[in-house]
Structures are given as structure tokens and as C-alpha cells.
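S.,

As promised, the D-phenylglycine run. Input:
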Amino acid sequence: MVQTGNDIVSDWQQPEDNFDYVKKDVMIPMRDGVKLHTVIMIPKGAHDLPILLERTPYNASGFAPNNSPHMKDAVWSGDTDWADGSYILVWQDIRGKYGSEGDYVMVRPPRGPLNPTKTDDTTDAYDTIDWLVKNVDQSNGRVGMIGSSYDGWTVTMALLDPHPALKVAAPESPMVDGWMGDDWFHNGAFRLGNLDYFTGQMTQAGSGPSLPRWGYDDYSNFLRAGSAGAMAREHGLDKLPFWQRLTAHPAYDAFWQLQAVDKMVAAHPTNIPTIWLQGFWDQEDIYGATHAWEALKKKGYGDTNHLVIGPWWHSQINRSAEHLGPLKWKGDTARDFRQQELIPFFNQYLRDGAPAHPMPQAMIYNPAENHWQDFANWTVSDKQQRTPLYLQADMGLGFGKAAAGEDSYVSDPAKPVPYLQRPIPADNEDRWRTWLVQDQRFVSDRQDVLSYQTPVLTKAVKLEGAPFADIFAKTTGTAGDFVVKLIDVYPPTYPEQPEMGGYQLPIALDILRGRYRNSFSDPSPIPANKVQEYKFRLPTVNYTFKPGHRIMVQIQSTLFPVYDRNPQKYVPNIFHAKPSDYQKATISIQHGAPGASAVLLPVVGQ
Ligand code: PG9
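Predicted complex:
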């Protein structure tokens, strides 16, 4: 009857006789002695199997979260298709995160001017692969690497000086250039959601908290805080070394240039067969895969490197993708791609006797036609010929040049244009994932949003490539941002899906911080009341505007709180803008002359 002692035993092991796999936690030593926590799942009875490796800052143990006797059910959704007994699955915590030793450096730059140590994620990947092929007896000595977003970035780093056993790779939505167009900034405009990410990632080795909120609506929460710098100070982010570095480099200086992965892969091009993959509406890393792939193609490596753009939100490749918001696809486009392309592509390089699985140079979904399209020679270049679609009088849009004129609006930083219909809850994943396909009618009647549209199209307009915004504008301020959206306006009635009648679907949108209009590295104030050109690239598309639809271009100066507000008065560093720096400005968009504002479209088959 006595109940004393310790009911918790220290050496209990779960009996795994009925499991179809063996799971091991190991610490793998790197060349400097630091050990990295690694989870290895080996199908029972396996021999001569390839290894699929993912390196992550997001908790390696969390990739096999379920205590199931079946490997397929034990792993997370992104790995289910790989867990059929034909791969050894390996997840590793990168340095300093979760179970790994060492210091964590946010997207650690490669050895060199920004990293004077002897290790980086290239050497850590190399040392890990070396250990795995020598110590996992069931392996056939061949490794593939995969991972999305940050984990896509770790794949790209492994490719810079790959271990000979690394035979194939797939960076999925990799973060490639945090300043130009991935997570941190877009063309110099800072993305406020990073503040939550920074406390989550850099206040603990595990998972830290997000920022405290005053209310349900993030529009009000961020507006209340003032500048990004003020919000960061209020919540203690100014103590984080990476925040200090980031805010000390608001422009595209050497700090950013030296850690841009597209520049690095161009300097160390790889012949390892690689699929560079991202979402068409990738709300976090829409820049990376396309630009890294373009850099490799330019270097003559377009045969072994493939570009894939699916009709997906960020990382949706690892989940089901039958639809994106209201857009419905034919079947599960992510599962089908994984099963019919990605895995056979990996198999051919990793498994003896696997059939060849050639892939086209690029595979890009056409969301309007609802199918994949293969491209034997996909080319996007800044100098490519594009067809201008001009802004015209009376809010018109057309391929003919317009007469001189302008349209004005008052941009008030106290009332920025929301990126989602309010309220915008902080933790609503679904709304964040689908914001890039949201119907833009919720803002098109605002006085500070200009909406130009073509007449109803009588012929299809097919785009293949990257459109450019080429806007001529003057402002009464000395600073300002330009947001340009290319939109497909559905017919007013749409019988096959009635709720899509009149829908304004963004196809490509982006922002330019006006101080960088002439140089990303060398900002300059905007001369007040003088017409300036604001030219910038929009995300890559493969899209058909169908007859019966219209093309719309929307222009506005804020997109909040995705992007921090521009005070519209030139200050040296917007992170430190004071409340009194924020001022209204009148923006006048020109058409015809002195500048013919347009979006430059990569139209094919005209
Ligand atoms: N987009 C996230 C990220 C990547 C790289 C750096 C910071 C954030 C992610 O989903 O991992």
C-alpha cells in the first residue's frame, strides 16, 4: 500500500518491435567540434537506401511529430510521400537552434567578410553529409537535400561547395535575398511581420514568443506603435544583435550584397541536378527561387537547374493544394507534383535502377488556364523586350500611348491602405497565406488607390516572364513608396463560380521604396514636385488574361502592415523616423507626358 519513491523511471524505452522504422537522435560533430542534433528515421530492414536530408532552424524533432508505429504516419505532411520505406529521412537542427550546440546566426553569411569563422552552413552541410554516409550503415552513400523557406536556404548553402555524396537538391521557396524581395524587405520597404519572427527565432534556442498585441486588429496595433524602430524598442528587439545589424543597413549595401544567394550561386555555380521551386503567390519568398535559377541559367547551368512555379502560397508544396483561397485547381497540385515529378526526379539520381525522369528547364503553372506548362527555354532578363500597357485618361489602360495628363491622390501615413480587409488578426494563418489572391475591390474605391483598367478584352493576353512597373510620378513630399498591382478583373457575372463575378485578382504586385529609384545602394531624397521615374520588376508570371476579362493596374503608396510606412519626408533611416516626420503627400501619377507610365508586360504570341 506504500506509495513512495519515484514513479518516473529514468531509463524507459518505448518497445518498438511493431514499428516499421527505427528512429535515432544523434549529435553529429562538425569540423570545429560543435555537435548538431540530428534525427534519423530508418525503415526497418533497410539496406542501400538513399538519404533525404533537411537542415532547419525550426526543430528537427518536430518533423516526425507523431508517435506512430508507421513511418508514413509519424512524419509531417511534407514528408509523407518520402516515408514509404525507400528513403532514410534525416532532419538536423542548425547551429544554435533547438538541440544543436553552437551559436546561432540568422541566415548565417558564408565564410568571408561577414563571417570570419571557419564554419558556415556550407561546411555544416558538408560535415553532416560526410558523417551520414560513413555512419548510417543502411545508406547507399547518396544524399538528396530538400527544404522550404529557411530550410530552402540551407539547401542553397550546401550547393556552394557540395559534398560529393550530395547528388540532387530541391530548394523550395528559398530565402535568397532578404533585401530585394524575400522575407525582410521588398525593394527596400521593410516587412513588419518580421518583428514577430525575430522574437520567435532569436530570444530562445527553441521557439520564442511573438510580440504582445494591444488589440485584435494588427492594422491598429502597428499604427499605434509608430515606426518599425519604435515598435522594436517598445518590445525589446533593439537588444537583438541581428536587429541592430539589419537596422544599421537599411540600404542595399555590401552587408546585403555579400549574403545574396543568387550572387553566391553565380560565383559558385553547381552542376548538381536541382529543382528551384516556389509559389506563384508566395507571400514570403517570391523572389528567391526565380532569381537564383536565373543567375545559374545566365552562367550556362540551365540544363541541370530547373525552375518550378506552382499555383501555391509559401511552402504549400508540402501540403495539399487543391485550391488557393477561392482559386480552384485541377486536383491536388502539390501532391501530384511531389509524387509525379519531385520524387521520381530525386529517385533517378539516388536509387539504383530508378527510371530516368527528365524535367523541362521550367515548369510553371498557368493559373488562368489551370494547367502546368513546360518550357524548354525559359528566359527572363531585365533587358528583354516587353509590351507597355499604358495608363490613360479617365482611368483607362491600353496598349496605345496616352495623351498627357495626371491623376492625383493624397497619401496619408495616418491612414495607410490595408493589405487585407480589416480586422487583420495577428495569428490567422489562412488569411496571411492567401492575402496575395485577395479580391482588391476592398480598396479600389479608396481615394488613395488609383485603379486603371482596360476595356473588356476581346482577345486573350498571355504573359510569360516578369512584368515591370514603370511609373512616372511627382509628389509634394521628399520620400515615398509606390505599390503597383497587376490585376485580372473577372467578368461581372461568372456562372462557373458565381462568387468570382467581378473579382479583382492580383497576378503580380510589389513595392518600391522611392528613395531607391536610382540606386538600391545609394538612396536619395525625391525632389518635391518633380516628375521622377519609378521602375521595378514585379514577380514572375505565366498567365492568360482571357477574353471577357479586363486588365487592371492599381497604384498606391502604402500596403500596411505588411510594409512599414514611409514618412514621406526624407529621413536618413526610416527605422528611426519620429512621429512628426510622418506627413501627408499628394502624389500625381503621369500618363502620356512628361512620362508615359505603364506596366511593361512580357506578352507572347502577339
Ligand atoms: N519565410 C521564412 C523565413 C525564411 C528565411 C529567413 C527568415 C524567415 C520561413 O518560412 O522559413
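The pocket of D-phenylglycine is lined by residues 107, 149-150, 153, 175, 183, 197, 284-285 (CB under 6 Å). The two ends are 89 Å apart (CA to CA).

- D.
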